[in-house]
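Slide 14.
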Amino acid sequence: MTTILGDKLNQAFEAKNNDVETFLWKGSRKIVDGERIQSSMKMVDMTEEELRKAYKHCESMLYSNNYENPGRRVLLEQIEDQRTRCNAELFLIWLLYPGEGSTRQGIVRTSFFNMLNQQITAQAEQFAKENAEKGEGETNVSAIAETLFKEWTLNDIMNSDEDSFTMFASLPLYIVREACLSALGKCIRKHITLTFITELGLWFTRSELLELNKKDENGRLVDRIKQVAELLNIKLRDPKNPEDRKGLVLKIDDRKGLTLKEFSAMLTFRKDKYDKRYNDLTKVQLETLRDKVLLHLENKVRWQASEWEKRIKQIKAVADYNGYKLSD
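Slide 15: predicted structure.
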């Protein structure tokens, strides 16, 4: 009985999702008389030219290479690349500073770069020799070495019994090589906005809760958000003044919240005058970006991409329904 009811509900839901009469196209938001409004119209009522423009807009929102406003799919690739580069820099920090209980010696990036080149060159020479003997395949050592750098990961050249190494095992060697040369480039911040960082909220560690114990004149604990604002010199938005857009909104969030240490590191990251190179970022900044901020941003952008892809699917369905062509 439950299965039958579930099937009927799924069928009804599917029918609604495929009903072109329900598809709406929403226009851009505009400020009218101090209020933000957004117009909408049924897609089936749009002309062929309007539908084409809507389709091109969706494609642009997904695949545009515009620097200031990249498409969502393009931005997802950028975010993935940023996480990889943060991880590469963190690997070199891990390499230099063995953890407690580790028996290995710390290695500076230049030394690891030389070891990496030697190992890859030796492997390339072996492959070149084998290919020459078989009379097939690449025999140029330099070309083979470059191929290995592009296709191999740290896991292909390193053995480590430390659990912490698993975080770095899948790093591409060409990225590690760039990190060794301090050539990972700048960490672009334009899509990691201060608003997005504050939207993640705060979730204090036990030691931070003990630190944020300021009392008022009556001996009562001062609101910890206000304590954070004072500590980090943040202007909070006045909840009683709807016109106040300059202050920040801070909140407690037990799901996505950053620790006070992480939040402070991200504030510094955003307030720096220029984008910094990856090797100039602190360990806390790199870890917070890799493990939290960029992950949450990826989830948000992935959802945005799915919405634009949904619109494209709807536009195509309406075009078929009306007999329109979306391109010449």
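Speaker note: The first strand starts at residue 24 and ends at 32.
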